[in-house]
TrEMBL record:
This is tRNA/rRNA methyltransferase SpoU type domain-containing protein. It comes from Phocaeicola massiliensis B84634 = Timone 84634 = DSM 17679 = JCM 13223. Keywords: Methyltransferase, Transferase. One of its GO terms (cellular component) is cytosol. Residues 25-168 form the tRNA/rRNA methyltransferase SpoU type domain. The lineage of its organism: Bacteria, Pseudomonadati, Bacteroidota, Bacteroidia, Bacteroidales. InterPro entries: Alpha/beta_knot_MTases, rRNA_MeTrfase_TrmH, SpoU_MeTrfase, tRNA_m1G_MTases_N. PANTHER family: 23S RRNA (GUANOSINE-2'-O-)-METHYLTRANSFERASE RLMB.
Length: 180
């Protein structure tokens, strides 16, 4: 096996990305405080053609050099919007016909490996604060909650790692719908 050169990866230009047919998927960051986590979410969202990111509350907005360290320019490709209160973002997406799902450990959550999506729906996922998770009032406004099964002694993952796992699962399923 030969490692591919960056020129062989068929990467989209910024303009091509802006014009690309995005997945019907949005990400809401609910009070995420780490600039590195925010940048990582941008980069992962770029990789999986996420429509847009909502940055809520204390979540910082681009441009910022610390965010850029992990975003590597994805803060310029993925559309984003700042909203002071996360509930406003949830309401806006509901009004646009999105099914909004919090990623949180709650009673009655759906395990990620059991998640079933519908091909004609649009989805948004809410990612919570590094310490407190998704606010209860935001959970109450969502259509449901998704939980990542975990088997060790730690039952929490970094928000950027969680976002990567969840976006992969959504993208994998939504891309299959496009092929059918």
């Amino acid at each position: 096996m030969r490692k591919l050169k960056i020129t062989e990866l068929n990467r989209l230009t910024v303009d091509e990305f802006k014009q690309a047919n995005k997945l019907p998927l949005a990400v809401i960051l609910d009070e995420v405080r780490s600039l590195h986590n925010i940048g990582s979410v941008f980069r992962t969202s770029d990789a999986f053609l996420v429509e847009r990111i909502y940055l809520c509350g204390i979540t910082a907005t681009p441009p910022h050099p610390e965010m850029h360290k992990t975003a590597l320019g994805a803060e310029d490709t993925v559309d984003w919007k700042y909203v002071k209160h996360t509930l406003e973002a949830v309401e806006e997406l509901h009004n646009e016909g999105y099914t909004v799902l919090a990623i949180e450990q709650v009673e009655g959550s759906t395990m990620l490996d059991e998640l079933e999506l519908e091909p004609d729906k649009k989805y948004a996922i809410v990612m919570g604060n590094e310490v407190k998770g998704v606010q209860q009032e935001v959970i109450d406004a969502c259509d449901g909650c998704i939980e990542i099964p975990q088997y060790g002694t730690k039952h929490s993952l970094n928000v950027s790692v969680t976002t990567g796992i969840v976006l992969w699962e959504f993208a994998n399923k939504l891309i299959k719908f496009r092929k059918e």
